[in-house]
# Entry
Amino acid sequence: AQKITQTQPGMFVQEKEAVTLDCTYDTSDPSYGLFWYKQPSSGEMIFLIYQGSYDQQNATEGRYSLNFQKARKSANLVISASQLGDSAMYFCAMREGGTGGFKTIFGAGTRLFVKA
Amino acid sequence: DTGVTQSPTHLIKTRGQQVTLRCSPISGHKSVSWYQQVLGQGPQFIFQYYEKEERGRGNFPDRFSARQFPNYSSELNVNALLLGDSALYLCASSPDGHSGANVLTFGAGSRLTVL
# Structure
């Protein structure tokens, strides 16, 4: 069964510094996609970044990058130059390919606090 | 471009009642997924529909049901409500639900309180 683990319930970072949010996953499917979403206090889920299992390079989207280590089954999110508006819950998610491709599962999340 | 819309935004029910939540996907999206998010936890997958057929089901009791209409909108029904059903119910749409970087676009959610 597919599984997502986020071991950091909460993280603090100083404004303008970089922070890494950890995510490990478990799947036996060679084809899968990994996602990160942000959920501010308003509640709406916002897509940040995507990494496919066959992608050779780590995904980047502006200040967000995904540190993809396939052998370790980890997909950590790196936020550079943190801003106060980055304070939110962050969720790692995975969708398997093949017959399981219609289900995206989420981790428990990490709450990020950005300090001024 | 209108995003994913959900209704109602908030509702209060009592134990044993039934509730229907509605979702309209982004225009052109054919897949709708439903998630339950209990306070302080990650979203839990309930259902996914694509082209009006159920394509995925999470570990939820039969009290939970859903359907997708020809215009790709969707309804989630929960019967015989329990206190533990109190949660934010999120609807997400995606172009086809399974290929490549099929990013889920979420609505603002329906917050259900069961008393």
